[in-house]
Amino acid sequence: MSQARLAEEGRLAAGIAEIGRTPSASLDDPEPLSRVVGTIRERRCADWYALFTVDEASFRLIAACEPESGASHVAGIDLPIGTRPAIERLREARTLALGSSELAGLPASLSGRALRSTLLTGLYRDQVMVGFIAVGHATALGAIEPWARNLLAGIAEHASVVLQNPRLLEEVRTASALKSEFVGAVSHELRSPLIIVLGYLEMLLDEALRPLTDEQRDALRRTDLQASTLLEMIDALLDLNRIEAGKLPVESVPVSLPDLLQDVCEPMLRNVARPGVAVHRSVGPGADRLQSDPGKLETIVRNLVHNALKFTERGEVRVSAKAVDEETVEIVVADTGCGMPPEALGYVFEMFRQIPGSTGGGVGLGLRIVRRLAEALGAQVTVESTPGRGSRFVVTPKTGLDPTDEVGTVAA
């Protein structure tokens, strides 16, 4: 291949690559396709460029290389396709070269100059032409026409993606909103009757209706435990749904860590811990109080303690807090359970992910909620784990939290 041909191919590749970067970086711009036109102009490979949208019977100018020219006066105006047979041919040919005779009928207001040749290439969505790019030259293309055609075809591929992405993004947003509404509605409908079931179970266990035999009491306790686990799953879904939607307000009030750890650990020790598993808690000097959201901080600690107890068959779970400095407290939940393999540490905080072979149950939302709530409180969550020896989760909330209106949809 000659050096001239190599240079030509290199220039073509560079042009297409540059165009590709432009729309990729401009998807949030109100008119991303106009950036494509600007980049074509910077390449200086023609004299006039424009982008059009097309429907069944008309076409419309949406961007031109010189907005200050007369083309701006027809931008947004529907023009009939019937008077422009080349556009109909473009639906099949995809790329067309127009000579002087076919350009004679082109309104001067579109280009603002006399053109000798113009290339057209279609923009397609689902195999249907939805627009086209027009590239005009004041002189005949001659030998560079193949190169210009290839460059324009590459540009059109990227521009088609730009046209497609806003629709896809809108579909994703709509699907996400519908998902959130569905999860919220179903969870609420499941939660209400389950609360009633738990209420009757409590009455039966308190022998409010009649005395129980040992076998009946054991069966009711097992039923109560499973119903309580189901309620925790439903509450987790509701919490996560509100977090993802940015609808959980954040408050900032004084929090007593000794009281918070007690409120979390004592019910867990009675209802969740296996026989032979001890739960220890401690609060070091300077870590007894902080300014934070007590409900969210309690949810974080409770989920970590609950997770530790589920995977600890013997040994202990230690919950501790200590002051790192004047602005940060470190809360640690460590267990002597089964631990996790190294590869699991990369996805343990992801939604609906569980460790292969684990028998703790649940739906894989507890640690996801921990991370999202921690981020909302300006805290970091880290984990260390060794298979067969246990895991250690560390949360570092700030001692002083500024209240905000709501939990934002922080990055996943």
Structure commentary:
By secondary structure, this protein is α+β, with helices and mostly antiparallel strands. 45% of the residues lie in helices and 20% in strands. The strands form three sheets. A six-stranded antiparallel beta sheet has the order 3-2-1-6-5-4, with helices on both faces. It has a five-stranded mixed beta sheet with strand order 8-10-11-13-12, covered by helices on one side. A two-stranded antiparallel sheet has the order 7-9. Helix 7 packs across helix 10 (366-376), helix 8 (257-271) runs parallel beside helix 9 and helix 9 (294-310) packs antiparallel against helix 10. The protein is elongated.
Second-tier CATH architecture of the largest domain: 2-Layer Sandwich
In DSSP terms (H or I, runs of 4 or more residues), the helix count works out at: 10
By CATH, the topology of the largest domain is Beta-Lactamase
User: How many domain units?
Assistant: 3
The CATH class of the largest domain is identified as: Alpha Beta
What percentage of amino acids are in beta strands? 15-25%
Question: Gap between N and C termini, in Å?
Answer: 49 Å
User: For the report, how would you describe the main beta sheet?
Assistant: 6 strands, antiparallel
Could you report the average pLDDT, rounded to the nearest whole number?
75
